[in-house]
Amino acid sequence: MPVHNAPSGDYRKGRGSRMRTRTSMVRAWLAAAVTAAVTAVTLTAVAAPAQAEGIPSVGRNWAAPGPYAPEVSIGAVHTLYYPQNMGAHGEKHPVVIWGNGTGVLPGAYTLLLRHYASHGFIVVAANTPASNFAITMRSGIDLIEGLDADPASVFHGKVDLDRIGSAGHSQGGSGAINAAVDPRVDTVVAIQPGPLNDVDLIDEPVLFLAGQFDAIVWPVLVKGMYNDADHVPAEYAELRGATHFGTGISGGDMRGPSTAWLRYWLMDDQNARAEFFGQNCGFCSDSGQFSDFRRNGLAKQIP
């Protein structure tokens, strides 16, 4: 495993003006932790990132359907879930590449992926029952880049290629971590992820979701991955009462937190930011929803 030096804070790869803004902000946040005096000055000077242009707010209703009607297009290699009226208000839509659990295809998660689309994401789901090594997941980025460039495509000019997340469940959760070695990926949601990955290889913010009563991927295994992610902002959320297979179809209790994480990192949703970051973050004290909730040092430095 590689040895990590002090983190640079360059979690958005510096691609595009929005990403350069976020990179400079994260660096400012980390610098602010040096002394209380510097903190006070820095936090006064750094403005909060704006909501992604044209994307409607949903308040804090992360588990409820979003403002877009979802559409589905099934292809040979990928299934696409996306808003029907993309770009209706001039907005561009962030991308989520998705990895399935062992032995199933995207249809096993259809309600969850339609839910993401209703919140304004374009989901590119790999049509493979073996997504651990993320080959098909990563090729989904190539697919959506090509569709965005194609004047004959419904996606033409409507894809925000500067905002891409990887997400998945079980084997696909491990695939989401492996997909993040791709420099185009900006954040990760690993839902009850399998063990065949190396968290040390990624440099994106990551949310680890575990189920309290998961007998397939034990919470202690997910917690170990979280502990290993001390070189990036990482959070661990253990859903109270959740089992491994409760995530299928609708996303179960994982639906709300995963949507909020994606809305912050890919849409700059400040309501979502408040759930994860700051002294009194919303999810931090939600013992009714979570049996365990943890934030590492770098996550705690984001105000």
Care to describe what's here?
It holds the Pfam family PETase. Keywords: Signal. This is Chlorophyllase enzyme. The chain is α/β, with parallel strands linked by helices and 303 residues long. The chain is built from 9 helices and 9 strands. It has helices at residues 16-32, 36-45, 110-118, 135-149, 171-179, 219-228, 255-267, 270-276, 297-300; strands spanning 70-74, 78-83, 93-99, 122-126, 159-169, 187-191, 206-211, 234-239, 290-295. Helix 7 (255-267) packs across helix 8. It has a 9-stranded mixed beta sheet, with helices on both faces. Mean pLDDT is 87; it is low at 1-50. A hairpin with a 3-residue loop joins strand 1 and strand 2 (78-83).
CATH class of the largest domain: Alpha Beta
CATH homologous superfamily title of the largest domain: Alpha/Beta hydrolase fold, catalytic domain
As a percent range, the share of strand residues is 15-25%
End-to-end Cα distance, whole Å, is 30 Å
- The best one-word shape is globular
Radius of gyration: 18 Å
Q: What number of domains? A: 2
From the coordinates shown, what is the CATH architecture of the largest domain? 3-Layer(aba) Sandwich
What's the SSE pattern? Answer: HHEEEHEHEHEEHEHHEH
For the sheet with most strands, the description reads:
9 strands, mixed
Low-confidence stretches: 1-50
* Count of beta strands: 9
Number of helices: 9
